[in-house]
Amino acid sequence: MEIARISLPVVIAGEIAVFVVIRIKHKYQKGTLGKKKSKGDQNLLDSLIPLGMMIGCAVAVLLSVFFPISLLSTVGLGAGIGLLFGYFAYEISSKKVESY
Fold it and tell me: Transmembrane stretches, by residue range (predicted)?
């Protein structure tokens, strides 16, 4: 039971990472990755996934301070969940039509 409790965050974060990588690879092969007209908007769009991971890690550290959860497992899960939320933000932002 202890081994499952230790390895579960790694397995969950790994599955999320594989999902995101496969989806981005599929979008790249189809040529439907998000493109923005201005360089600043494109930089923000490209930074959403790493920003999601950093925010997820920060939230996980705060949760581990207030709740009796291991810091190592919360950081792993936080990064994985942040990666997923960053990917969803990337998808939503890349589908918005620019009106200039």
Answer: 6-24, 44-63, 69-90
Q: How far apart are CA 9 and CA 13, in angstroms?
A: 6
Q: Where do the H-state alpha helices sit in 1-100? A: 2-30, 39-66, 71-95
Residues 14, 97: Cα–Cα separation, whole Å: 32
Dist CA 76 CA 90 (whole Å): 21
Q: Is 48:86 a contact under the CB 8 Å cutoff? A: yes
Burial of 93 (0-12, 13-18, 19+ CB in 10 A): middle
Q: What is the pTM of this model?
A: 0.82
Block means of pLDDT (10 residues each) for the chain, 100 residues, are 85 93 91 82 86 93 89 88 92 69
As a residue count, the chain comes to 100
Token output for 64: 């581990």
